[in-house]
Specification:
By secondary structure, this protein is an alpha+beta fold. Helices cover 48% and strands 19% of the residues. It has a four-stranded antiparallel β-sheet, covered by helices on one side. The N and C termini lie far apart (94 Å).
Length: 444
């Protein structure tokens, strides 16, 4: 069976009237979401304000053509808001100053928009905003009232459900009554030509492409440097050479570990800093920072991405150093344990093996024992980490002062074999007393 269907529907004024197109609020919400993703929140605001303005101007022109009294045209604006589906209801009040010839000298209004579709869709698709979001409603009110008043009138949303407020409240005034408060807001009402929009988008795309290329080159150089077991300083030098940004790497106590920039040393008193942590085994062990002039604009997103890559490379350098340190400590600790247990019987063998640990065992030496006792209550894991910290601090103490020493652990104590320095005038008791004081200060 075949059903033939045909017909013709048209509006007599369709070629001349500014036609309305009904659009579900969910579709406008989807448009909002896509625009945020592609042009950003700031430019979305301008787009929606101009979009609302055009709708308001169109409805304002229709109101003028109806020749209804001015007060009725004013009341028609909130009604259009509802019939257009922008809101479910509103409350408002205000007044207008009318001249002798019937011209509108100024107007003031305030009120609330109930169930703004913009607030509902924004929260549904983008979450709670940091600022007001009813840009289409604001633009519509401004466009409509400017058209029927014959001079520029601007609306401002002062509270918004879209940012977590209890209601969407607005204020509307003639431009000259805003006393300059809306000067910054007026920029959103001036449409940017599409060619300028495309130029701006192309410039952004080109800038981002160049950044990705530079980031890729830097990542490759950092990877090569880490694979060669390079230092933090060589990494900082690569970063400055590639990105021309002064870079600072420091430990958690603020001690400088590496710096590269136009000056021989960083000037931290008169600069801005962007800093990210260096993390190793879920523990912050340092920071990487870019340094800027006080009035310099910071590209937070790109520079933070750079710093994240640099911090990762620094973390790998720390890891390499940790592995080397632990290997050396383990080797020296094993050697000390062998000495204490009488494993070696040949003196020449002991002296020869000592050279591998950078020790001259032909010289006199002292043997010291550091007893460690945990007095406060803590978990086994915390106690383990504390003992590791103490042992590492002891090892690094002698490394720092260039002393020949072997350190190891035995029966819960730290054993230290210290080669006697012929130039040292202090007694072993004085040396160990200073060591004990420095150790207590380091662990405080």
């Amino acid at each position: 069976m075949r059903l033939d269907i045909q017909g013709r529907i048209y509006h007599s004024d369709s070629h001349h009237a500014d036609r309305k197109i009904a659009t579900p609020s969910s579709a406008l919400g989807l448009l909002r979401e896509e625009l945020v993703r592609n042009i950003g929140i700031e430019r979305l605001k301008g787009f929606l304000i101009r979009f609302g303005w055009e709708m308001g101007v169109a409805d304002g022109k229709k109101a003028l053509q109806s020749n209804m009294p001015f007060i009725e045209m004013v009341k028609r604006g909130p009604m259009f808001h509802v019939t257009n589906g922008h809101i479910r209801g509103n409350e408002y009040k205000g007044y207008a100053e009318i001249g002798e010839n019937g011209q509108v000298l100024s107007i003031y209004g305030e009120g609330t928009w109930e169930d703004s579709y913009e607030a509902i869709e924004h929260i549904s698709r983008l979450g709670v905003s940091q600022t007001q979001v009813c840009h289409t409603l604001t633009g519509y009110a401004s466009g409509y009232m400017s058209t029927i008043c014959g001079h520029e009138v601007l609306a401002k949303e002062v509270t918004c459900v879209g940012r977590g407020d209890k209601e969407c409240r607005w204020v509307l005034k003639s431009l000259h009554d805003w006393n300059g408060e809306m000067d910054e807001e007026r920029k959103y009402y001036h449409q940017t030509p599409i060619l300028k929009e495309l130029e701006f988008t192309y410039e952004q795309l080109l800038e981002q492409t160049n950044f990705i290329t530079r980031l890729s080159n830097l990542q490759r150089k950092l990877t090569e440097e880490v694979s060669r077991e390079g230092s933090l300083q060589t990494i900082a030098d690569h970063v400055f050479a590639e990105m021309k940004k002064p870079i600072l790497i420091e430990d958690t106590d603020g001690q400088l570990l590496a710096y590269s920039g136009p000056d021989s040393k960083p000037n931290l008193e008169n600069c801005q800093r962007l800093r990210v942590p260096v993390v190793l085994q879920n523990r912050v062990i340092g920071y990487c920072s870019f340094l800027y002039d006080p009035d310099q604009l910071i590209s937070h997103q790109n520079d933070r991405t750079l710093l994240d890559r640099i911090a990762n490379a620094a973390s790998l350098v720390f890891l390499n150093e940790k592995i080397r340190y632990e290997s050396l400590v383990r080797m020296k600790g094993d050697f000390l344990e062998q000495l204490l247990s009488g494993y070696f019987t040949n003196r020449e063998d002991i002296i020869r093996r000592g050279k591998y640990a950078n020790l001259n065992l032909k010289l006199p030496f002292h043997l010291a024992v550091l007893q460690t006792k945990i007095t406060r209550s803590m978990s086994m894991e915390d106690e383990f980490h504390l003992r590791e910290q103490i042992f590492e601090t002891v090892y690094q103490y002698f490394q720092k002062f260039g002393k020949q020493a072997l350190t190891g652990r035995r029966e819960g104590n730290i054993i230290m074999l210290l080669i006697k320095d012929q130039r040292e005038r202090r007694s072993i008791q004085e040396i160990m007393q200073q060591f004990y004081e420095d150790l207590a200060l380091a662990l405080h």
